[in-house]
Design brief:
- The protein has a two-stranded antiparallel ribbon. A two-stranded antiparallel sheet has the order 2-3.
- The chain has a single domain, classed as Alpha-Beta Plaits (2-Layer Sandwich).
- The chain is α+β, with helices and mostly antiparallel strands.
Length: about 70
């Protein structure tokens, strides 16, 4: 944990116009950032994101962006 430094939390976004709800991001993310709500993938714990970009690379349609 970083204390007393200028570290911002990554911003995680899903483009629902592209998302096909394949749930690859859920199974890929080592931190449990993603979940499922109402049959759609959602960003449930964005504060847990470590910006590893695994979800970005794994998404077959490029629906996820992570901005540091």
């Amino acid at each position: 944990m970083l204390i007393g430094c200028d570290y911002g939390m990554p911003e995680v976004e899903i483009d629902y116009g592209l998302c096909i709800s394949c749930k690859t991001c859920i199974s890929t993310c080592p931190m449990g950032v993603y979940g499922e709500s109402g049959g759609k993938v959602s960003v449930e714990s964005p504060q847990e994101c470590i910006a590893c970009m695994g979800c970005v690379g794994a998404c077959p349609v490029g629906a996820i962006t992570v901005t540091e």
